[in-house]
Every structure is written in structure tokens, then in C-alpha cells.
Protein 1
Amino acid sequence: MAKLWEGDLHSQLDSFADNFNSSIRFDSRMAQEDIRGSMAHAAMLGAQGIISARDADAIRKGLEGILADLASGALTVDPTAEDIHSFVEGELTARVGDAGKRLHTARSRNDQVALDLRMYLRTQADEIVSLTAALLKTVKDRAVEHAETIMPGYTHLQRGQPIVFGHLLMAYAMMLTRDIGRFRDARARMNRSPLGSGALAGTTYPIDRAATATALGFDGPTVNSIDGVSDRDFCLELCGAAAILMMHLSRFAEEIILWSSWEFRFVELSDAYTTGSSIMPQKKNSDMAELCRGKTGRVYGDLMALLTVMKGLPLAYNKDMQEDKEAVFDSMDTVRACLQVFEPMVRTMTVRADNMRQAAATGFINATDLADYMVKKGLPFRDAYRATGDLVALCMKRGVTLEQLPLEEYRRACPLLDEALFDEISLETCVARRLSQGGTAPESVREQAALVEEFLKDVSDIH
């Protein structure tokens, strides 16, 4: 297939260099966007009298036919084409003759590829928002289900204070709401049409950039033609949002992996999302969670690759920017795949509430509440802190919990204490009384879930 740039000034390109230069193997996924953009461009050219109405109509019908044939499989993309733009234009010209050669009037491949990429990534952002919202709903639902399931809360991977499992899940829910916000913000900023920027300086033809922007669902045209063809901030923003989302999934995956181990046994993953060992028949490996954790590094790499490509480029377009697509496409593909496996994995996992409660009971995680109760009785905090430490040490020596220690031992440490302390340090009381905004009390968890429910309605209304 002849190159769009070939002419008398260029001899034939070396075959290896030709393949090295080609982008058809990855930009072919933008065929629909390329055709839709060309249809809007041709309609504008016809409306402005830049090409005849007859040619504009012929181009529209030809492009509609190509789009239909690609969808049905009657036409496949030629892998020897330089890029998707040259393939579509070549196929169009073969179908409608000279009218097809007029399609590229007042347009460059520079603004064409920038347009295709923005249109394609808009759809990708919408899909990822929808998938993240589905995971968010599942996390929220499971949090409500376990608003009273007591477990140990950890710092430094050491048991710290009693919480409910629903409270921990709502922490991930909050992360996911921010992830959705980042993707929506990135989409809003990318929703400007670069079509009409030309190679870098605009065009002398009387084009109507606002008309093509509106026809293609953009909020308006880009303001500066150089920026229009050389900006890839929108790719970087999406890769950045994807990297943060994957970091959240990786942290969640790490917890699920730990909770699934025999050392914790807090949850059990469905067989549909685990694998066995080739030589150890007792094993049930949380491979899907591990893969999500591992693929996080891949998405980080995509972001760093694209940042590195862009960091030293002079304006305007440079061929280096062809490297944008593989990085951002891989990032979007990876995030989508992880979300698609993560949601059902969380939805179907079994929560071992009894093991969580037992772990909470044996970790002295109500020690802070004991110290607080001593302070309420009139003991200075530092004295209460020291006395509580002595009582914990005594429990460890005797192999009992704080709830099992006799009252007389408490009175030796603090004569002000009475039988009411046992209610004060019960795990149920410890979580129920943490009613401060955002706290772990079941009532607070349900309030957090209600806020997420409202957030999801807003996301649903937009999408």
C-alpha cells in the first residue's frame, strides 16, 4: 500500500525500517474512531463548501460501508498498512474514487491521530469508571453485610485496636471513589477536539472546528494548534489515574492474600478465583489476587515509559509520540482486566467472622479502652498507660485475656476500678462507642455506606 507521504522526493523505505515505522499492529484498534472522525470532517468540508456536497456524500457512504464491513468481518485491516489512517483512506479511495482523495483536505495525520486517541480513550475512561463503580458497589454491600463483624485492626501488621470488618472495607471504598473522580477529571480535560489543528499551524481553509467538535461529542476545540497536536497530557493523566487505582487494588489484594493464609484464615476465596499446586494437593493459591498485585508494576511501568518519552520533546509533533499508544493501551487493558476479576472475587469470598472475632479476643486490642476507662475514673493518662501495660503483661504470663482477668487484679493496679470495667472493655463496646465521624462503630459504617450509595447514583446518572 502506498504511503501517504510518498512522492518524488522520497525513495523506497528499507523493508525493516518500514515495519519498524509502522503502527498498524496497535493503532488498528482505533478504526471506529478514525472513521467517525473522518465522517465528521467530511461533513464539515461539505457544509463549508471546501468540497462539493456530492463528494461529501460519497465519502460518508464509503466510510459507512467500511465501518459496517469491519464490524461484520467482511473487511479486515491490512497488516501491511502503515497505520489505521492510511488504511482507511486507501480503502475509501478504492471504493469511491477521487472523492476519497479529497477527505484529507484541511487535515494532517497529526491532528487526526490526536483526535482518534482522545475519542478512543474517552470510551476507555468511561468503561473503567463503570467497572470501578461495580467494584465499589460490591465493596460497599459487603461492608454493610459485615458492619458488626469484629476483627483486629492493625498498624505495622501488629494487632492494634478492635474494628469491624465493614469499616476496613469502607476504607477501600473511599479509595475507589477517589479513583473514579480521577478518571472523570481526566476525561473532562481530554474532551477537547484537536481536529483542525493541521500539522501544527492550523489551515488556510475556512473550516468550522466548533462544528466537528460538537458532532464528535467534544466540549469544544483545543485552543492552540501546536498544543492540539503535541499534547499527550491526557494519556499521562489516564496512566497516572490507572497507576493509583492499581496501587489501591494491590493493597487490597495483599490483604486478601494474607487473610486467605492459614496464619489468618479470615476469608476464603471461591474456587473460581484460586488455583492449586502442581505437587502440593492441600494448596489453594490466591493467584488472581497475586496477579493483580503483580500487574500493578506493569501499569507503573507504562506511566514511567510515557513520561520518559515526553520529557524532552520539542514542539510540535515528533515520531517519538507514536510510543504513546502502546503504553496507554496496555495500561487501560491491564486495569480493565484486573477490575473484571477483582469484583467477583470480592463478591464471592467467604468471610470467617468466627476467626476474626477470635483473633480480636486474643490480641489485647482493647488495652487502649482499658486505659481510657482508668482516665475516666480519675487516673492520669500516663499512669493509666503504665498500669494497663502491667496488666497486659500479667495476662500474657497467665495465658488469659483482659476480659478473663479477675477484678481484684485490676484493683491492685487501680483501686478506682469496679465491675463496670468488663462492659467497658468488651470488644462490642469498644467498637460501638467509636461514633466519631468516620469511626468504626457499626452505625458509622452504615453512614459511610449511605454516602457511597449517593455517590454511585451520581456516577450512574452521568454514565
Protein 2
Amino acid sequence: MGDTRHTKVLIIGSGPAGYTAGVYAARAMLAPILVQGIEPGGQLTTTTEVENWPGDTQVQGPDLMIRMQEHAKATECEVIGDIITDLDLSKRPFIAKGDSGTTYTADAIILATGARAKWLGLESEEKFKGFGVSACATCDGFFYRGQEIVVVGGGNTAVEEALFLTNFASKVTLIHRRDELRSEKILENRLMKNPKIEPLWFHELVEVTGTEAPLGVEGVRVKHVKTGEITEIPCKGVFIAIGHAPASELVKDTLATHMGGYVKVKPGGTETSVPGVFAAGDLTDHIYRQAVTSAGMGCMAALDAERFLAEQADT
């Protein structure tokens, strides 16, 4: 039988949204508990150089997340290394079950479980993640100025990434399994008119190749889906753009979602379909997916939770 812990605010998730919510909730004297989840620090822990975090010309992703964690702890937000496996939102206080056996009860909950980029599942893709393989053009495109780049995918995400990368790359090869895109027509038109982008139809990525010491991408091998013919393409960066999946498994049956599982929040706020439950960051955001916007939403969620609890105390 595990322990039971009660808190006014339980924060589930530990990326920029979660840690920022922890700072603000702690400063509001709500004594929050933050449960880090399966990937402490979130997606930024798999990113190397970050150059778009305000105040840091360049910072390593894992270092930035350690700093955020320490900031949250310094404000007396309790940070716990546990994973929430079950969440009961049917009554208050809400009940969360931890993998450690601990049960957490809370008067308000802030969900900040983020989203995960979809990957192809190749061994070579995993090997070069952060060393030439990325799923975020706005995060990493800057590092490939004057280089040749490959983008994999055929939907809005892939086309937007390819167009963005032309700001830096000398050439962008878009690899797609079909001979037509699934993106919006206006995006497709922009892509087809861009002289830096070369679509490669009916192909799929089968291997990323590169150097060992230091680790770095040098090219890809692609296979024609009809003939099976293998082609090698030299490149310095590989961007996997086959979409993102929100980490909403805990609440997909209890909270309103949209756009393929993203938690729906009140426009301009963080309130979900259940009073007292707030959501922030990439879990709710299918558009921007940036650390700075996630942090902003974490702030909003903590302030919304503080307001909610004050209103409950008055009734």
C-alpha cells in the first residue's frame, strides 16, 4: 500500500510548461507538487543547441531543462520523479495514481505532458537524433546554412518545414511515399514554385548514414516504393516531418480533445472541459510547438488554477 499525498495543485509533466507552472504556482503559495513523467524535461532533453530561447544566445537543451527544474525547486515547488498511470477526474479532489505506488490527490490539476514527434522507427534514425536528425525545423534549421537537407513527409508539417528550411539550406529534398502531397493546396503551390525544393516521389527513407567520431549525418538511402531501387542522397540534415502526437493518453476519454488528440482549452486560456483541470504547452498546441510558447502557457495555467482555487474558497 503506497502513500497518499495531497496538494492544492498537481502538475503532471516537466517540460517548459510544467516547470513554469511550478514556479508560478509556488510563488502563489499553493505548494504545488510536480510529477515529472516518463521523460523528465520533455522534448528539449533530446535537442542539442537551442538558439531561440530568449536570454540565451545558445544553450544546450538538457542544460536549459536542468535550469528550469532547479528554478522550480528553488521556489519550493516539490519535484517528484514518478509517472502518473491513472487519473480520476470524476470528482474533486482529483485522484492520480503514480507508478511508484503513491496516490496523489489534488484540488486542481495542470496537465503539461507535451507531445511527441512521430518517428519512422529506424535504428539509424535513432542513432543520429540530435546529430543531424531532427523533428523540428524551427529549432534546428539554423545550423544547416548553405547545406543540403532532406525532409521526410507529405502533409502540412513536411511542406511547412521544407519551406522554412529554404531560408537556410542550399537545397531541400522532400521525400514522400506517394506522388501527391496531403498538404493544403496553398502550401503545395508555394513548395512547387520554390527553386530550392526538389520533391522525390514514391520513395521512403530506409537508412541515415554518417560519421562516427564525431557523430554526424552525411547522407540518406531511400527506396523506390514500386521498384525497390535504392538511391543515395548526400545531405547534412534529415528532418522527419510526419506529424506530432499529443501525450494525452491519460485524459483522452475524460477531457474534450480535437485535432487528433490535442486537449481542447478555452480560447485565450488554459481551462479544459473539466472545471479545475488546466492544460498547457504542446499537449494543447498543434500550431506553434515552441518552448517559449509552452512556458507562457504554463504561466497562464498556474494563474488560472490560482484564480479557480480562490473562487472555490469563496463559495
